[in-house]
Amino acid sequence: MFSIERILDLEQKHPRNCLKLHRPWDRTDADIESDEENHQQHGRHSSRANIQNPTSSWYIGRRPRTAFTNHQVNVLEAVFHVNCYPGIQLREHLAGRLDLDEDRIQIWFQNRRAKLKRSLRESRLRMVQSAVADLRMKVMGQLRSDDLQVEDEKE
């Protein structure tokens, strides 16, 4: 029986303090300063400059990409296998338990359904290609046996 609580109990195995999400749009000045110190110690450039002064014009106005943890993906996949169209209540419940925004969960499910549809389409195409190749081999074999029979009749 499906139980969101049972799936989310996996969270007990992964304490929340070890999960670090990549959300640069939700960072405090203290986080940025800490990163800058780390980058200076390791000889890297400041990430603040990269975020505030993007070099590409396409980046302006875009929300940074969400990086899901393995635990979050595992829970979302488990829910997807049971229900690939979760309602708003389930999405909000997942959002609260996984520390994600509900709209990110909605987009994750949309993308996962698109991935499933694409993989099904590709597997159907491979099956058709395989069937055509098998049929071609059968026809070629039949043509060869017909040619051999004609040659035998001539002799």
Would you kindly provide a written description of the structure presented here, covering whatever features stand out?
By secondary structure, the protein is an all-alpha fold. 65% of the residues lie in helices and 0% in strands. It is built from six helices and no strands. The protein has helices at residues 4-8, 29-41, 47-52, 70-82, 88-98, 102-154. The chain is elongated. The protein starts with a helix and ends with a helix. Residues 43-52 have low confidence and may be disordered.
CA radius of gyration is 27 Å
Instruction: Note poorly predicted spans.
Output: 43-52
Number of helices: 6
Helix percentage range: 55-70%
Share of β-strand residues: under 5%
What series of H and E elements makes up the topology?
HHHHHH
Instruction: Count the beta strands.
Output: 0
Taking the sheet with the most strands, its summary is: none
Terminal Cα span? 73 Å
Which class best fits the helix and strand makeup?
Answer: mainly alpha
